[in-house]
Specification:
Elements lengths: L2 H13 L2 E10 L2 E11 L2 E9 L9 H15 L4 E3 L6 H6 L15 H20 L1
Parallel strand pairs: 3-4
Antiparallel strand pairs: 1-2, 2-3
Length: 130
């Protein structure tokens, strides 16, 4: 993790406006899936999902962990569950709405034009593949 990223979280901790959580799914005391998330203003942010074992993949431990986290959020009056950026399939499975985010790319030089074109081309290919 970059220093800036760590400093951001350290500052949020100092302000005491954010609760950070590490949530684990265990089988026989072995952690098979984890999530680093945080709560800010009644919103849970599902930030870093981690699958720790390939052994139980066929049982979808990540989805099972999300179900437990959702139940925990409901029990603790968390109003919104935010998966963050990305169009992964599991997010669509659990979501009942989505917020569209947009990018605006501009260039000032010929070199910038080529970089901008490459980025746009890459994003279009990625969209076609998902």
């Amino acid at each position: 993790l970059s220093k800036d990223f760590i400093n951001l979280f350290n500052n949020l901790i100092k302000l005491r406006k954010t609760r950070f959580l590490e949530l684990n799914l265990e089988i026989n005391s072995d952690s098979i899936a984890s999530c680093f998330g945080f709560i800010f203003k009644d919103n849970f942010y599902y930030h870093v999902p981690i699958l720790k074992s390939q052994k139980f993949n066929k049982f979808k431990p990540g989805k099972i962990l999300i179900i437990y986290i959702l139940h925990w959020c409901i029990k603790n009056n968390i109003k919104k569950f935010d998966f963050g950026l990305g169009a992964e399939k599991y997010k669509k499975y659990f979501s009942n709405n989505a917020i569209s985010l947009h990018r605006y790319l501009d260039f000032k030089t010929l070199k910038g034009f080529f970089v901008c074109s490459l980025i746009n081309f890459t994003l279009k290919i990625k969209k076609l593949l998902t």
